[in-house]
Every structure is written in structure tokens, then in C-alpha cells.
């Protein structure tokens, strides 16, 4: 988070020229009450975060604002309450969904499929076998960049004129973010209708031998129901965790598969070596289905190639997109690492078009550039919490024009991603650097004050995350003035600027946050 100079707002006892970088979860922090009130105001999402953009909309960030915030996805999606404006029936739906969240610790289950064979039974109960078989799927697994790659691929294919469905995880504020139709979150009305159909059908036909599906499995089944009934032309499907035993892997014949950058994550489930992790990710590869990946560590690449050979799959390695092929257009998602994700998305979209017989739709102006539809899709892609810059409009409008506050949000939750995040933040806040985003992106100056707002789940190792973040920032001449460590649990029941604080403050265990502070 960063704040520019000028007089502080009347309700915010922050010193002048406050600037901050932060990871964001709605939470109360052990600090003086006035500053806590101000932070609560700052962390109200509903008025600050833009909704996904339609195909012809431009990015809404004003060019005159300076500051930003960083949000690690390690802590994203922890609130399942939804926005403060939902209907009573929608609240009931969210309550039913919350009842499916398993209380098991990830490491308790291991990764022996956790009764993965139940997924086929759920598909049968919902009579989705034929519907899933008819979907034209782009299936993407990996450690880092899955959501961004899927977002790019969907945006490209939508720009080519196709009716698209996109399933990603996790959500930041509202579960409907996971289900996009033509680039927009599914409507509340449609979500409720499809939810009750799946819920009641499964409730009627499950029992002791076949329990109700766990949270993510239910959402994956719901996605298949939504996309089949909505008759989308293409489904872009992000794996939730791993690959072989993931709920999305009930798709037996995708059009094309992609595997993004691989690294160490979810080791308590996927394995302790890169080879073990890679074998899980490679579980989405299917015989006769073309597949693409990006340059990988040697151990990971050898496992991928071996599995591809066993299946007779053509696994091709793609490289980062050359920015010159974009005809001076920026990527819709910021950060130099996004050029790798964009390169993979281009290969996936192009292969989907080729295998579906639609390459004739493409229009290329110059031999050295991408088709117009690809450029449009890549430049208009939007995904919250990935290299996202959010000016606090209320604070900025109430100050004089030299004062500002900006949040830089990113979902980094591995050591490699922390480095990429720090490099992006340093670049975005360096006035001498060239901004890697739209011209209307807020521009900060290097003299602004930087604050870190951070959290990660207890399954993460902060010794692998925080030093990488701070060292990379320091290497780029960036230092944080303060760091705030916030808990997962919010004192608010809902997210949004209309939410009211509880009448009595609940005591929250801050032992993990104190551990982070020591690191």
C-alpha cells in the first residue's frame, strides 16, 4: 500500500505522504482505535474493487491517482459470507455451501484421491456424463499462473466471438466470481437456480455410502451444470489443486491441456519433491490430447516429458510472449511474469481454434504481430487480486490533489511468486520505471511511504515467503516503513462498504500473526 503527500483526511490519522504495500483480508488489527477504524474503512472491498470488465470496456482506474496495495492469494477466499447486498435466498445458498467446507486439515488427508471415485458417482447422480463429454474444454494445471493463464485464454476466445465459460478459484469476495459467462460473473438469479437444482438432486440421492460432495467438488459439479445448460462454446477450466485427483479431472477428453510454471506448493498433499508434485499435475494429460507447458526446472520437465511419452501426447514448450507482438498494447494483467502466462494462453487458444476448425476467424494486420482478436483479448483480460492496483477513491477525493492512497494487490503465496510480486511492486512504484499496464494506471513516486499488509495460512512457511519478498524489494531500493499482520477471521460477517462492525468485539487468536511478526 502506498500513500502520496498532502494533508491527511480528517478521519485518518496517517501521517502525510503515507504510502503502503499490503496483503489484504478484512480483519481487525491490534493497533490504536482511530487507525484501526481507518484501516477498516480502507479494507472495504465493495466500493474499491472493480468488477470483471465486459469485452468492450476499458480499465476504470483513473490516471491521476498515485497509491496501491498488494494482496496475497494465500489468504484470499477465506470469507465465504458474500457481499453485504445479497438477497435472503442468496444468503441461504451461501449457508448451504459453507456446510460443505470440510474441517479437516489438508495434511490429514494426504493425496490418495480422498475417495476421488465418488466424483463419477456425483456426475451420474446429476446426469452430467453426456453434458461434460460434449463440452469443448481447455484444461489448465500448474503451481503458479493457472488463473492468469485461464483468464487470458478465455478473454482471447471471447474476443474471437465465442460464448465462453470460465471456472477459476479461489474467489476473493463472492463465490460467483468462480463462474464467468462471457467474461462476467454469473448473475445471482442464475447462480441460485443452478445451485438449488444441484443441491436438491444430490441431497435426494446421497446418503451414508455416498456423502454430499465437499465444497470444491460441489462447485466443480455446479460449474459443469452451468456451462452445459448455458450452452457455452468453450469452457476454460482451472484445476483447483494438483491435477490427477482434482474434481475438474472428470473431463476425459479436453480439446487441449496446459501446465503452467511448477514449484513447491501444497506439499502436505502433493508430495515433498518437485517430481512428486509434477506427477500430480501431469494427471490432467490425456491420450491424444495436445498439451503445452512453459520452461520448467529439469526435474519437473523430465517427469512431464516421461508422462507425455507414455500417453503418446505431443507436449510442446512455449516461451514468454514477445511484447512487440502486441502492437504497443499492454497486457491486461500486470507484471513481467504475465508474459509467460500470456504465451501459454496464446498456444492453448490457438490450438483450440485449430482443432475446432475456427482459424479462419483470425485477422492479422502484420506478419510480426498477433491476430487482432488475440491482442484485444490479452489487453482486456481482468482478474482480481493479481497485480491489481486500487486507488482508494474516497480518501483521494477528500484530500488535496497532492495526497493519495493506493493499494497494490497480489495473490503471491509461494517463494517464487513472492519474488515476482516484489519486482512488480517495486517497478510499479518507481517513477523512473515504465509502467507495465494501461496508461490510465495510477503512477506512484519513489518517495512515497510504503506499508506492508500481510497474511498467509498456517500451512505456509513464512520463512520461505517473507525473506524473499523483503530481499527482492530491498534489491530494488524499496523498504517498508511499517508492516501489519492481520488474521484470517474478520470481525465483520460480510464483506462490503455497507457492513457494520459487531456491537461486541470478538476475541480473535493472534498467535499466528505474532509468529509472522517475529519472522
Automatic annotation (TrEMBL):
<dbReference type="GO" id="GO:0004326">
    <property type="term" value="F:tetrahydrofolylpolyglutamate synthase activity"/>
</dbReference>
<dbReference type="InterPro" id="IPR001645">
    <property type="entry name" value="Folylpolyglutamate_synth"/>
</dbReference>
<keyword id="KW-0067">ATP-binding</keyword>
<dbReference type="InterPro" id="IPR018109">
    <property type="entry name" value="Folylpolyglutamate_synth_CS"/>
</dbReference>
<comment type="similarity">
    <text>Belongs to the folylpolyglutamate synthase family.</text>
</comment>
<dbReference type="GO" id="GO:0005524">
    <property type="term" value="F:ATP binding"/>
</dbReference>
<keyword id="KW-0547">Nucleotide-binding</keyword>
<protein>
    <recommendedName>
        <fullName>Folylpolyglutamate synthase</fullName>
    </recommendedName>
</protein>
<keyword id="KW-0436">Ligase</keyword>
<dbReference type="InterPro" id="IPR036565">
    <property type="entry name" value="Mur-like_cat_sf"/>
</dbReference>
